[in-house]
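Regression test case RT-17, inverse folding.

Input:
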C-alpha cells in the first residue's frame, strides 16, 4: 500500500478507480461525506476495483460514527481510517466496534484493518503506544496540515517535522506502515516522495490521481530494514 488516493467529495469520476493506487480513501467523516461516498464505495466494490478500499470514519464520540458503520454494512471496506486518532485506547475501542460490525455483516474476524490518522499534538505524543494498540493497526498516516493548524505554526516548522519523525519511528518499531501527507505542489511531488522514503516512510497519500504514478515509482524500490505487517 504505497499510494493512497483520497477521493474528493465532488466531481468524482469512476476512472479514479483505475489509476493503480494501492488504496482509495472514501470520506465518511461526517454526514455529508457519508451521503456522497456511500454509493461510491459500493460501485468500487462492484467493479472489482483492485485497490484496497478504506473508509475514513468520524471520531468515535461523533454521533455520525454509528451512521457511518451502518451505511458500510452493505459494502464492508478493507480498512478504516480513524481521523484525529488520540491514544491507544481509542484504537482499541475502534477494534472492538469493528469486531461487532464484522460479526453482524458476515465479514471474517479481523479482516478490517485500521489506519490511524495522526494530526493532533495529543495523537503524535501517543503514537508509540497507539501503533501497538491493536493487531488490526496497519498504518500510521501523517496529517501535516491539520497538525500545523492545531499548533498555529507553519507546515514546515520544527515541531511539525519533529512530530513527523516520531510517527516514522513509532511505525517502524511496531512493524506498521508510515504514510506521508499529500503533496499540495505537483512540482515538488517527486522531491517530497524521495525525502519521505529517505525519512522512513513507506508510502504517501495523494489528492490527485495524477500523483499515483510518481508515488508508486519512488516507493516501489524502497528496501526498508523493517517489514510492515
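Golden output:
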Amino acid at each position: 500500500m504505497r499510494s493512497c488516493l483520497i477521493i474528493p467529495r465532488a466531481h468524482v469520476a469512476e476512472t479514479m478507480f483505475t489509476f493503480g493506487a494501492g488504496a482509495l480513501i472514501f470520506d465518511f467523516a461526517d454526514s455529508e461525506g457519508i451521503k456522497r461516498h456511500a454509493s461510491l464505495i459500493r460501485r468500487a466494490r462492484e467493479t472489482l476495483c483492485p485497490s484496497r478500499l478504506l473508509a475514513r470514519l468520524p471520531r468515535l464520540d461523533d454521533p455520525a460514527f454509528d451512521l457511518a458503520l451502518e451505511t458500510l454494512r452493505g459494502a464492508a471496506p478493507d480498512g478504516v481510517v480513524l481521523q484525529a486518532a488520540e491514544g491507544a485506547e481509542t484504537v482499541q475501542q475502534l477494534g472492538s466496534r469493528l469486531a461487532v460490525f464484522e460479526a453482524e455483516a458476515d465479514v471474517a474476524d479481523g479482516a478490517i484493518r485500521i489506519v490511524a490518522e495522526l494530526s493532533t499534538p495529543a495523537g503524535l505524543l501517543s503514537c508509540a503506544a497507539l501503533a501497538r494498540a491493536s493487531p488490526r493497526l496497519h498504518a500510521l498516516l501523517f496529517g501535516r496540515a491539520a497538525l500545523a493548524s492545531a499548533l498555529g505554526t507553519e507546515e514546515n516548522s520544527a515541531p511539525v517535522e519533529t512530530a513527523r519523525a516520531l510517527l516514522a519511528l513509532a511505525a517502524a518499531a511496531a512493524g506498521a506502515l508510515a504514510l506521508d501527507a499529500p503533496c499540495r505542489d505537483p512540482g515538488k511531488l517527486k522531491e517530497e516522495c524521495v525525502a519521505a522514503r529517505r525519512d522512513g516512510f513507506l508510502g504517501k497519500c495523494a489528492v490527485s490521481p495524477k500523483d499515483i504514478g510518481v508515488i508508486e515509482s519512488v516507493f516501489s524500490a524502497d528496501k526498508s530494514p523493517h517489514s510492515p505487517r
